[in-house]
């Protein structure tokens, strides 16, 4: 198994087969079902952890490579770094970080009662580090017909939902709320299994946004809601 990675501002170019598949899957899940999924989002994630316990997501050992701020933001050696992970799940992102760096203090929150939940108001002048599914990720193209909730928004069999972010949407979200955009780009990875002749195109959207220091509500936050195939 080999893994190739590149980054870019443009979305992945689809093959004609992939385009056709997306165009033929335009029917949306009914309003009633959408509302039910929204109301039951917390319950569905909680049931997900009941079924999978800590066995679903792989530990994410790439966070300090992708977000070098996690190391370089310190003003002096040994300075304690405080961060918040929103949607921490069972800690596949946090625990490798805490193991690697003893000077990290982390708050974590997740709406599944099976996950640890803490809340913290964060200090000024820090960054929001973002990583989630990107447009046309392999998993987006694998959704069956009648799983579509809206543009780039899909539901799995178990009721958990996935949104596939575009670079433009993330810019609107953060810049519209007063953040400065530092980085906002697609991360393209290809998982190649030579034996089986398979090449799986993974796409993530990765961003860094900074709240101008004058705003006291600035956050230092890491958000990751990617899926089970960790880069
Ligand atoms: C795909 S998992 C990722 C977990 C973890 N960040 C990781 O990297 O392994 C997404 C997590 O986000 C949580 N989540 C989804 N929507 C949420 C919300 N509105 N509020 C709090 N947590 C949420 C889910 O319960 C789930 O644990």
Automatic annotation (TrEMBL):
One of its GO terms (biological process) is tRNA processing. InterPro entries: METTL2/6/8-like, SAM-dependent_MTases_sf. Keywords: Methyltransferase, S-adenosyl-L-methionine, Transferase, tRNA processing. Gene3D superfamilies: Vaccinia Virus protein VP39. One of its GO terms (molecular function) is S-adenosylmethionine-dependent methyltransferase activity. Belongs to the methyltransferase superfamily. METL family. PANTHER family: METHYLTRANSFERASE-RELATED, TRNA N(3)-METHYLCYTIDINE METHYLTRANSFERASE METTL6. This is Methyltransferase-like protein 6 isoform X4. The gene is Mettl6.
